[in-house]
Amino acid sequence: MKTIAITLALSTLVAVATHAQQLSYTPEVVLGHRSSFYMHHVSYKISDKIKINNLSLFDTEYTTDKENIFFIRNTASYTVSKRFTLNAAFGMKNPGAFFSAFVQYRVSKPTQSFSYAIGTTYQKGFTLEQSLSFEYTPYLTAQKQAYFSVLAIGNVNTKMYQRGLQFIRLGLKQDKLMYGLASNFDQFNNSKKTLENIGAFVKHNF
User: Fold this and answer.
1) How far apart are CA 29 and CA 36, in angstroms?
2) Over the stretch 162-172, which tens digit does the pLDDT of each residue have?
């Protein structure tokens, strides 16, 4: 509990950074057939090279707490070049504390973005972690865009595909507001256990 309290306190410090022009906050809510889902990403720019970020998500079933999922990650990022960053992170996720180090490649254009990251995570042993993110927002009219995004993360060790997730969003974007259909897929321990959550999402960039 002490570790969780420290992690949440540091997450709060990230979220309340004082210079608003250097702070971004993006919350998302999904109401699905199995559970309600909340995720946010907070980013604070310290300098042209250094950022601190907080990513938190909570997935809560309607009928039981057995399959609840939580994830809190605090990351320090150093920009090496226009497309590459080095990252060190710590946080909490089922079933406890973890530490990560990874390198990220990112390309961003006005209506699309792509990122790929690879590194290692330690949580009761080391795993190789890879993540891929893609977002596409073509204009439909002068004020409205289509919205499509995919996030996929996988952790493997020498014995198994330990953990995986895929988040898919399809909908519309109007200025800083996004909404539409959502699909969340989670896999555990070589997919011996899988979870799905299909529903609607709302997301906003502040």
Assistant:
1) 8
2) 999 999 999 99
